[in-house]
């Protein structure tokens, strides 16, 4: 079995190239990029100069420079990640957790927290994708728009728990399960969108 070839230790130039490559390939934040570069330094080590001393590498300054140049933009990352998660049916709490884990600062997390209309739409989307509430998959040939049959209480609790784990507010989850028809949820979302767009 062949041994894995050890990569050369990092110097300022190769560290910069790694940072640029990472920023070009992934939507990232300053904190995530800094963690990536720190991991690479641990894995590969730091190159030595001609006199056998480790070269000085300032990861923080390199990341700050890429932020200054616009290659890394925490605000744009937060905006895109927030929209992506809500468009996939995740709630505001899950958005907050994802942005916090990515190292987005508190102000940017607040600025890009989903508003009421997006939170409602995300809850409705998850219900539709998972067949919850009025989107329950009915085995009989009932017409669309008919009220969903009552759920077994244990199953209902599991579905509610799934929506809560996905970051939805409890009152939004209850609205989904109390809705008698899909149109009720669509009206609920439209109402919030109208309020958001009101002058």
Short description:
The chain is mostly helical and 199 residues long.
Could you characterize what this model shows?
With 199 residues, this protein is mainly alpha-helical. The protein folds into 2 domains: 12-72; 75-137 and 146-197, no CATH class. 62% of the residues lie in helices and 0% in strands. It is built from 10 helices and no strands. It has helices at 12-25, 30-44, 59-69, 74-87, 92-101, 106-111, 116-130, 153-165, 170-178, 182-197. Helix 1 packs across helix 3, helix 2 (30-44) packs antiparallel against helix 3 (59-69) and helix 8 crosses helix 9 (170-178). The mean pLDDT is 89.
Topology:
Layout: H1 12-25, H2 30-44, H3 59-69, H4 74-87, H5 92-101, H6 106-111, H7 116-130, H8 153-165, H9 170-178, H10 182-197
Helix pairs in contact: 1-2, 1-3, 2-3, 4-5, 7-10, 8-9
């Amino acid at each position: 079995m062949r041994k894995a070839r050890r990569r050369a230790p990092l110097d300022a130039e190769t560290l910069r190239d790694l940072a640029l490559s990472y920023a070009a390939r992934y939507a990232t934040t300053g904190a995530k990029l800094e963690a990536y570069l720190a991991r690479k330094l641990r894995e590969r080590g730091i190159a030595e100069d001609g006199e056998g001393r480790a070269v000085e590498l300032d990861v923080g300054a390199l990341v700050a420079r890429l932020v200054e140049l616009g290659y890394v933009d925490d605000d744009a990352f937060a905006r895109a990640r927030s929209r992506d998660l809500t468009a996939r049916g995740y709630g505001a709490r899950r958005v907050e957790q994802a942005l916090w884990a990515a190292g987005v600062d508190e102000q940017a997390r607040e600025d890009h927290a989903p508003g009421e209309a997006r939170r409602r739409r995300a809850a409705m989307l998850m219900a539709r994708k998972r067949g919850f509430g009025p989107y329950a998959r009915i085995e009989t040939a009932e017409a669309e728009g008919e009220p969903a049959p009552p759920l077994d209480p244990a199953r209902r609790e599991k579905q509610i728990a799934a929506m809560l784990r996905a970051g939805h507010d409890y009152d939004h989850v209850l609205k989904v399960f109390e809705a008698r028809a899909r149109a009720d949820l669509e009206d609920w979302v439209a109402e919030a969108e109208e309020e958001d767009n009101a002058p």
